Amino acid sequence: MFRYALKRILTFIPMLIAISLLSFVISINAPGDPVERLSKAAGNEGSAEQQSGASKKIKQELRKKLGLDLPIFYLSITDLASSDTLYKVQDKYHKENLEALTHQSGNWEAVSNYYHSLVSLQKAHQKVDAKAIVAKDSTLSLNLVNEINNQFGFEIGSLLETSDKEIVALKFEKMNSLLTGNAFLNKLEVPLTNVTNARDNIFSNATKWKTYIPAISWYGGKNQYHLWLVGNGKERKGLLRGDFGISYIDSQPIQSKIWQKVGISFSLSLISIFLAYLISIPIGIYSAYKKDSVADKGMSLVLFVLYSMPSFFVATLLLLQFANPDNLSWFPVSGIQDPTIFDPNWSLWMKLKHRMPFLVLPIITYTYGSFAFLSRIMRVGMIDIVSQDYIRTARAKGLGEGKVILKHALRNSLLPVITVFASIFPMAIGGSIIIEVIFSIPGMGVEVYNAILNYDYPMIITVFTLSGFLTMVGYLVADLLYAVVDPRISYK
Amino acid sequence: MQNTNENFSFKKYAWAQFKKNKIALVSLYLLLVLVIIAVFAPYIANDRPLYAEYEGNTLYPAFASETRTDSIYNAEGAFVQVLQYDITDWRQLELTSVVWAPIPYSPGSMDRYNRDYAAPSGEQRFKNSDGEIINIPSKFRHKLGTDGIGRDLASGLIHGTRISLMVGLVSMGIASLIGIILGALAGFFGDTKLKMPRIKYWLTLFGVFMGFFYGFGQRKYVLSQAFSESIGDGMMAMLVSIGVVIGITILFRILSKPLQFGKLKEEVNVPIDTFVSRGIELLNSIPRLLLIITITAVVERSIWIVMIIIGVTGWTRIARFTRAEFLRIRSLEFVQAAESLGFSSARTIFKHALPNALAPVFVSIAFGIASAILIESGLSFLGIGVPDDIVTWGSLLNLGRQNLEAWWLIIYPGMAIFITITIYNMIAEASRDALDPRLKS
Questions:
Q1: Average pLDDT for residues B261-269, to the nearest whole number?
Q2: Do A310 and B374 touch (CB under 8 A)?
Q3: Model confidence over B103-123: pLDDT tens digits?
Q4: Is A475 near chain B, with CB under 8 Å?
Q5: Beta strand extents in B50-201 (DSSP E only)
Q6: What are the chain A neighbours of B410 within 8 Å (beta carbons)?
Q7: B422 contacts A452? CB cut-off 8 A
């Protein structure tokens, strides 16, 4: 038994790593730039001029704090042409563009030169002072100069982000025509020629063959995955030590946001599973007792039909019937408390009494989902067990039917209890998204739903990883419990 | 009676068993009806008429392509007007004779005179060809009501049938392809039966790696370009990539032939069963709905991508059943006979063993379709993954949830989902009983 447990735990570790890798892969493929999202959440969004100053510094710090200036993984599989220092480029879109350019030409050095020349063009452009130009040449209006200047800036910005040859050619054409048409931009002439030359150099010195040879570069422990998983011992503690990152919505640490909500989802699933057992066990017993009677057959058909009924349809029907002024307005439509009356200082009993009407419909729906499923399992399990030899023996030695069923059969048919019970842990983290959304219960399900609608990837990934971990733990506990409860099962 | 034994065919026997279950038979006919509705949806519910006489011209608007544009000349040859089929309001034209589709509305077309949840039996209005607003003629009545922006519910339901059937078909097609192949390999070879020379094993692994490098790493930009053009182009490019992976792997296997000497020639076991079983365990340990929702959050919103994700995450059950069947079959005489006759493993697996392993797989596919439809309607009920402009049963039900007074938006789409899922579950259960009495519950 001990050896089995040890072996089971050992196979458990690679699975955990696999789950963490899977969620990490999903998280780095999430669209958008996390730094932009976070600084937007913090209200640092401003015009281009403002960004160049203080907020740019904040962004750099954020980037560093999130570890985005590190390579993604311990190693990367690329081709010979790709650079192993590309990860140092800060902007996500610039990075993607440089990668595409390197793929087109196979010459990283030329691409890097091109990028640097573009960046210095951008710097030269930022130095252009529209007011000084207007002061020098009074024939120009400030608006016109600003507009042309902004156009030029826009072209540079898009050159930094696109690798499509036709678009790039168009952008160059546009910039050249802007330059020749407007003498006041003459300071940009030299940097622009540099850029054009660098661009030509990429393709005249292309080494496409390099992209066909795979190469592996090794980065060691300083990488994003490592930081995300185990932290760096300083401000980042890592997933394994309970640091799940920062929510994009309000820049709050995720771990501080979720615990209360986990409690709500957990208690709901606990109550509903308890109720589901309370109903399905008697059904199973009855079916075994009166096997093949009309009542049993009817019940099995009803259970089958209920099993096919989607829980969101049931929930909406319940709302339509019992929380609708047109029909019966017995229960409130949504939430778990009435904020105008609810007082956090109430005693537990008062709180429960107040919340009761809010919880009736959600608990019915919650229970319904597992009840139809469980009853079917219980029924099949009981019927299967009743036809076994030891039950016949019990009957043959003269025990009453009630004692046979309740004492001998029931105990063994309760084994599936363990399996289903193991699944409530992940339920608490993931919540039942659909049901919580329908009844607006402020649990984890609604939290995940809002995270998805607001593209709050750290939250989505946290919930995903945690429920994966907890399912694995649930399976482990269930397997071990089986071995403890049922002496017939031996793991050798 | 003597004849039955000679002509005994398992298919006939199973069909006879299936027919005994009357509810399942009815379900099968209902499924047929659903398929017919799905196939002919554009001719059942369409706001363009099936047949129309206009100024002496005979037109078949519902059968023409949506983007068609006709210049109409009257009998004297004088120009009347240009008809652009998809934006013309055919009800306003003076048609001399016309045959409308049974439901004269398209799922997306908004009837601006019946906005704000027109009830099925309530007052509905209509603008006739003279431009007067009148009480609706029974032909144009929204028999199942409308939603908040005047879209016809019956038409939405008819076209939703198409989507729900497609979801089942596409996602379970993908799932069974993956599940059957992996399950068959794992069950047939186990951990010890697949042996190959060490060098061949290594080079195969290396070939797979190189295949992915050239097929996906190198073609990254080609693939994303193709997917941004259209899903069809993307799938084609994907197939090419998979072909590249397979081709390069085979190439490396051939390359290993001349290298087989000394220690490199020693046979090693390929623990394929362990790989597949661990994969199944991993996928099963993640709550499926959460996995699907997480993936849909990072990819583009498209009904096709939803179908693909449901398929790619739904193969484990099929693989488990196939594996179990193959474990049983591989020790039976006919498989051993095929092997001793020197048939290749591929031929033994796919030609001899697989047809005998399909019964339980078929059952789990049918159950899988039911759960795929359930997941898709759940997702579109939440408005996740499925684009807003696609009308599905789930999205209709969601409209009803947001406005409980519109009971028709709850009852009808909900019943449609419920009935479809029940049909598939019924068929699955009855065919399980018919195909494999041992599994009967």
A1: 81
A2: yes
A3: 888 888 877 777 888 788 777
A4: yes
A5: 51-54, 57-59, 69-73, 79-84, 97-99, 125-127, 133-135, 195-197
A6: 313, 316-317, 320
A7: no
The one-letter amino acid code at B196 reads M
pLDDT tens digits, residue range A157-197?
888 888 888 888 898 888 888 888 887 778 888 888 888 88
The structure tokens listed for B309 are 């994700």
List, for residues A73-131, the tens digit of each pLDDT value: 888 888 888 777 777 787 778 888 888 888 888 888 888 899 989 888 888 888 888 78
Q: Given an 8 Å threshold on Cβ–Cβ distance, is B405 in contact with A326?
A: yes
| Structure confidence at residue B20 as a pLDDT band (50, 70, 90) | confident
Residue A138, pLDDT score:
76
Q: How far is CA A180 from CA A150, A159, A188, B42, B211, in A?
A: 16, 19, 11, 57, 50
First to last CA, chain B: 30
Q: How many other C-beta atoms can be found within 10 angstroms of the C-beta atom of residue A385?
A: 20
pTM over 0.80: yes
Q: Give A15's contacts in chain B (Cβ within 8 Å).
A: 278, 281-282, 285
The Cα of B432 is separated from the nearest Cα of chain A by a number of Å equal to 15
**Rg of chain B (C-alpha set):** 28
How far A472 CA lies from chain B's nearest CA (Å)?
Answer: 6
pLDDT tens-digit map of A287-296: 777 777 888 8
Q: What is the mean pLDDT of residues A143-164?
A: 86
Residue, of B273 and A469, whose pLDDT is higher: B273
- Contact between chains at B293 and A448 (C-beta distance less than 8 A): yes
Q: Is residue A417 classed as helix, strand or coil in its secondary structure?
A: helix
Complex prediction ipTM: 0.82
Give the minimum alpha-carbon distance from B302 to chain A in angstroms, rounded to a whole number: 16
Tokens standing for residue B365: 């596919």
Answer positive or negative: Cα dihedral of B417, B421, B427, B430: negative
Residue of chain B whose alpha carbon sits nearest to that of A103: B218
Alpha helices, H only, A290-388: 294-307, 311-322, 348-386
CA dist., res. B343 & res. B328, Å (int):
19
3-state DSSP assignment of residue A340: coil
Contact A285, A382 (CB under 8 A): yes
Question: Is pLDDT of A47 > 60?
Answer: no
Mutate to test the interface with B, among A163, A316, A472 (most CBs of B within 10 A): A316
Say whether pLDDT at B164 is over 50: yes
CB A186 within 8 A of CB A95: no
Tally C-beta pairs within 8 A across A and B.
Answer: 128
Q: Do B285 and A15 touch (CB under 8 A)?
A: yes
Classified as helix, coil or strand, A329 is strand
What are the residues whose beta carbons fall under 8 Å from the beta carbon of A93, sequence distance 6 or more? Answer: A33, A160, A161
Q: Which of B26, B293, B380 to mutate to test the interface with A (most CBs of A within 10 A)?
A: B293
- The three-class DSSP label of residue B298 is helix
The DSSP H or E segment spanning B268 is strand B267-269
Of the partner residues B374, B384, B400, the one whose CB lies closest to the CB of residue A452: B384
Is the confidence at residue A492, as pLDDT, over 60? Answer: no
Write down the mean pLDDT value for chain A.
80
Q: Scan for tokens 């063993």, then name that residue.
A: B353
The pLDDT score that the predictor gives to residue B2 is 45
The predicted structure's pLDDT at residue B441 = 44
3-class DSSP state for residue B129?
coil
The whole-number pLDDT of residue B1 equals 41
Chain A: residue whose CA lies nearest to B298: A30
Question: Sign of dihedral through CA atoms B7, B11, B14, B19?
Answer: negative
Q: Is B239 exposed, middle or buried (0-12, 13-18, 19+ CB in 10 A)?
A: exposed
